[in-house]
Specification:
There is one protein chain. The chain is 47% helix and 22% strand. It contains 10 helices and 7 strands. The radius of gyration is 19 Å and the shape is elongated. The chain has 230 residues and is of the alpha/beta class.
Length: 230
Protein backbone atom coordinates (compact mmCIF):
# COMPACT_ATOMS: atom_id res chain seq x y z
CA UNK A 1 0.00 0.00 0.00
CA UNK A 2 1.53 3.29 -1.13
CA UNK A 3 0.44 6.33 0.87
CA UNK A 4 0.72 10.05 0.21
CA UNK A 5 3.21 11.93 2.39
CA UNK A 6 0.36 13.24 4.52
CA UNK A 7 -1.23 9.85 5.14
CA UNK A 8 2.15 8.25 5.75
CA UNK A 9 2.96 10.85 8.41
CA UNK A 10 -0.43 10.26 10.03
CA UNK A 11 0.08 6.48 10.00
CA UNK A 12 3.55 6.78 11.49
CA UNK A 13 2.06 8.46 14.57
CA UNK A 14 -0.08 5.42 15.38
CA UNK A 15 1.24 3.36 18.27
CA UNK A 16 1.29 -0.42 17.77
CA UNK A 17 -1.68 -2.26 19.22
CA UNK A 18 -4.41 -4.84 18.71
CA UNK A 19 -7.10 -2.84 16.89
CA UNK A 20 -7.12 0.48 15.02
CA UNK A 21 -10.27 2.47 14.21
CA UNK A 22 -10.05 4.93 11.31
CA UNK A 23 -12.74 7.64 11.30
CA UNK A 24 -13.54 9.10 7.86
CA UNK A 25 -11.53 6.28 6.32
CA UNK A 26 -12.17 7.17 2.65
CA UNK A 27 -10.28 4.38 0.79
CA UNK A 28 -9.19 2.47 3.90
CA UNK A 29 -5.56 3.27 3.13
CA UNK A 30 -4.30 3.87 6.68
CA UNK A 31 -5.67 0.70 8.33
CA UNK A 32 -4.54 -1.47 5.42
CA UNK A 33 -1.05 0.06 5.46
CA UNK A 34 -0.68 -0.41 9.23
CA UNK A 35 -1.86 -4.02 9.13
CA UNK A 36 0.57 -4.73 6.29
CA UNK A 37 3.32 -3.31 8.53
CA UNK A 38 2.26 -5.64 11.34
CA UNK A 39 1.33 -2.84 13.75
CA UNK A 40 -2.27 -4.04 14.19
CA UNK A 41 -3.97 -7.43 14.11
CA UNK A 42 -7.29 -5.98 12.99
CA UNK A 43 -8.89 -2.67 12.12
CA UNK A 44 -12.23 -0.93 11.77
CA UNK A 45 -12.73 1.51 8.89
CA UNK A 46 -15.61 3.93 9.50
CA UNK A 47 -17.20 6.61 7.38
CA UNK A 48 -20.44 8.59 7.46
CA UNK A 49 -21.02 7.92 3.74
CA UNK A 50 -21.45 4.63 1.86
CA UNK A 51 -19.26 5.66 -1.11
CA UNK A 52 -15.96 5.72 0.78
CA UNK A 53 -16.78 2.37 2.42
CA UNK A 54 -17.35 0.83 -1.01
CA UNK A 55 -13.87 2.02 -2.06
CA UNK A 56 -12.43 0.69 1.20
CA UNK A 57 -14.19 -2.63 0.56
CA UNK A 58 -12.51 -2.94 -2.84
CA UNK A 59 -9.09 -2.17 -1.34
CA UNK A 60 -9.74 -4.64 1.46
CA UNK A 61 -10.38 -7.36 -1.12
CA UNK A 62 -7.33 -6.47 -3.23
CA UNK A 63 -5.00 -6.62 -0.21
CA UNK A 64 -6.56 -9.73 1.31
CA UNK A 65 -7.88 -8.25 4.55
CA UNK A 66 -11.52 -9.39 4.32
CA UNK A 67 -11.26 -11.16 7.68
CA UNK A 68 -9.27 -8.46 9.49
CA UNK A 69 -10.71 -5.15 8.29
CA UNK A 70 -14.28 -4.42 9.32
CA UNK A 71 -16.26 -1.68 7.57
CA UNK A 72 -18.88 0.34 9.44
CA UNK A 73 -21.20 3.16 8.45
CA UNK A 74 -20.70 5.60 11.31
CA UNK A 75 -21.11 9.26 12.18
CA UNK A 76 -17.79 9.86 13.95
CA UNK A 77 -17.17 7.07 16.49
CA UNK A 78 -20.89 6.37 16.96
CA UNK A 79 -20.49 2.77 15.75
CA UNK A 80 -17.40 2.06 17.86
CA UNK A 81 -17.91 -0.12 20.94
CA UNK A 82 -16.39 0.56 24.34
CA UNK A 83 -12.90 -0.95 24.67
CA UNK A 84 -12.86 -2.15 21.06
CA UNK A 85 -9.92 -0.12 19.70
CA UNK A 86 -6.50 0.79 21.09
CA UNK A 87 -6.03 3.64 18.63
CA UNK A 88 -8.43 5.95 16.82
CA UNK A 89 -7.36 8.00 13.78
CA UNK A 90 -9.33 11.16 12.92
CA UNK A 91 -7.66 12.78 9.92
CA UNK A 92 -8.34 14.95 6.89
CA UNK A 93 -11.26 17.02 8.18
CA UNK A 94 -11.75 20.50 9.59
CA UNK A 95 -10.83 21.29 13.17
CA UNK A 96 -14.42 22.03 14.10
CA UNK A 97 -15.51 18.58 12.93
CA UNK A 98 -12.62 16.93 14.80
CA UNK A 99 -13.80 18.65 18.00
CA UNK A 100 -17.39 17.60 17.30
CA UNK A 101 -16.35 13.95 16.90
CA UNK A 102 -14.29 14.04 20.09
CA UNK A 103 -17.15 15.66 21.98
CA UNK A 104 -19.89 13.34 20.73
CA UNK A 105 -17.68 10.29 21.25
CA UNK A 106 -16.27 11.32 24.62
CA UNK A 107 -17.66 8.29 26.48
CA UNK A 108 -16.31 5.57 24.16
CA UNK A 109 -13.02 7.42 23.63
CA UNK A 110 -12.21 7.10 27.32
CA UNK A 111 -11.36 3.46 26.60
CA UNK A 112 -9.06 4.36 23.69
CA UNK A 113 -5.37 4.58 24.54
CA UNK A 114 -4.17 6.73 21.63
CA UNK A 115 -5.71 9.29 19.29
CA UNK A 116 -4.04 10.38 16.06
CA UNK A 117 -5.48 13.70 14.91
CA UNK A 118 -4.85 15.59 11.68
CA UNK A 119 -7.18 18.58 11.53
CA UNK A 120 -7.13 20.57 8.30
CA UNK A 121 -7.89 23.86 10.06
CA UNK A 122 -8.40 25.59 13.43
CA UNK A 123 -5.32 24.00 14.98
CA UNK A 124 -5.31 26.40 17.92
CA UNK A 125 -8.94 25.63 18.70
CA UNK A 126 -8.26 21.87 18.59
CA UNK A 127 -5.27 22.13 20.93
CA UNK A 128 -7.25 24.35 23.29
CA UNK A 129 -10.01 21.73 23.36
CA UNK A 130 -7.50 18.96 24.10
CA UNK A 131 -6.02 20.91 26.99
CA UNK A 132 -9.46 21.58 28.51
CA UNK A 133 -10.51 17.94 28.15
CA UNK A 134 -7.27 16.72 29.78
CA UNK A 135 -5.64 15.15 26.76
CA UNK A 136 -1.85 15.21 26.45
CA UNK A 137 -0.15 15.96 23.13
CA UNK A 138 2.63 13.38 23.02
CA UNK A 139 4.05 13.94 19.54
CA UNK A 140 3.52 16.25 16.56
CA UNK A 141 4.61 16.13 12.93
CA UNK A 142 4.42 18.77 10.22
CA UNK A 143 4.99 18.48 6.48
CA UNK A 144 4.40 20.29 3.23
CA UNK A 145 2.80 18.41 0.35
CA UNK A 146 1.85 20.02 -2.96
CA UNK A 147 2.33 23.48 -1.46
CA UNK A 148 0.04 22.88 1.53
CA UNK A 149 1.20 22.53 5.12
CA UNK A 150 -0.23 19.82 7.35
CA UNK A 151 0.11 19.38 11.11
CA UNK A 152 -0.78 16.17 12.96
CA UNK A 153 -0.46 14.90 16.50
CA UNK A 154 -0.50 11.80 18.69
CA UNK A 155 -2.63 12.35 21.79
CA UNK A 156 -3.17 10.37 24.99
CA UNK A 157 -5.26 10.82 28.11
CA UNK A 158 -3.72 12.93 30.87
CA UNK A 159 -3.07 16.54 31.74
CA UNK A 160 -0.31 18.48 29.99
CA UNK A 161 1.40 21.67 31.02
CA UNK A 162 -0.80 24.72 30.29
CA UNK A 163 -0.34 25.88 26.70
CA UNK A 164 0.45 29.46 25.74
CA UNK A 165 -1.49 31.05 22.90
CA UNK A 166 1.53 30.60 20.62
CA UNK A 167 1.80 26.90 21.55
CA UNK A 168 -1.90 26.38 20.88
CA UNK A 169 -1.56 27.99 17.48
CA UNK A 170 1.69 26.37 16.31
CA UNK A 171 2.14 23.26 18.44
CA UNK A 172 4.02 22.77 21.72
CA UNK A 173 5.98 19.75 20.49
CA UNK A 174 6.80 21.30 17.10
CA UNK A 175 8.14 24.38 18.88
CA UNK A 176 10.10 22.32 21.40
CA UNK A 177 11.65 20.20 18.62
CA UNK A 178 12.47 23.35 16.62
CA UNK A 179 10.77 21.70 13.67
CA UNK A 180 12.26 22.91 10.36
CA UNK A 181 8.96 22.56 8.45
CA UNK A 182 7.23 24.73 11.05
CA UNK A 183 9.95 27.33 10.50
CA UNK A 184 9.25 27.31 6.74
CA UNK A 185 5.54 27.69 7.45
CA UNK A 186 6.10 30.61 9.83
CA UNK A 187 8.30 32.40 7.31
CA UNK A 188 5.60 32.03 4.67
CA UNK A 189 2.93 33.26 7.08
CA UNK A 190 5.07 36.23 8.06
CA UNK A 191 5.47 37.28 4.43
CA UNK A 192 1.73 36.84 3.85
CA UNK A 193 0.68 38.99 6.80
CA UNK A 194 3.29 41.64 6.01
CA UNK A 195 1.76 41.96 2.54
CA UNK A 196 -1.72 42.20 4.06
CA UNK A 197 -0.51 44.89 6.47
CA UNK A 198 1.00 46.85 3.60
CA UNK A 199 -2.27 46.66 1.67
CA UNK A 200 -4.27 47.77 4.71
CA UNK A 201 -1.95 50.72 5.26
CA UNK A 202 -3.72 52.80 2.62
CA UNK A 203 -7.20 51.92 3.81
CA UNK A 204 -9.31 53.80 6.33
CA UNK A 205 -12.40 53.08 8.38
CA UNK A 206 -13.41 51.09 11.43
CA UNK A 207 -13.28 47.68 9.74
CA UNK A 208 -9.81 48.37 8.35
CA UNK A 209 -8.58 49.49 11.76
CA UNK A 210 -9.88 46.29 13.35
CA UNK A 211 -8.29 44.16 10.64
CA UNK A 212 -4.96 45.97 11.12
CA UNK A 213 -5.02 45.03 14.81
CA UNK A 214 -5.74 41.40 13.92
CA UNK A 215 -2.85 41.34 11.44
CA UNK A 216 -0.46 42.90 13.96
CA UNK A 217 -1.45 40.21 16.48
CA UNK A 218 -0.80 37.49 13.91
CA UNK A 219 2.63 38.93 13.18
CA UNK A 220 3.39 39.19 16.89
CA UNK A 221 2.53 35.50 17.43
CA UNK A 222 4.48 34.42 14.35
CA UNK A 223 7.59 36.26 15.53
CA UNK A 224 7.23 34.88 19.05
CA UNK A 225 7.09 31.36 17.57
CA UNK A 226 10.12 32.04 15.34
CA UNK A 227 12.10 33.14 18.39
CA UNK A 228 11.36 29.78 19.99
CA UNK A 229 12.83 28.05 16.92
CA UNK A 230 16.09 30.04 16.81
Amino acid sequence: MQLSQRLLAVADLASAGHCLADVGTDHGYIPIYLMEKGKYERAIAMDVKKGPLLRAEENRRIHGFEERLELRLSDGVQALKDGEADTVVIAGMGGGLVIHILTEGEKVLRSVETLVLQPQSEFGRVRDFLEKKEYRIEEEHMLCEDGKYYAMMRVKHGKMAPLTEVEKKYGPVLLRKKDPVLKEFLEREERKFEEIREHLGVMEGEKSALRKKEVEKELEDIRAAKERLD
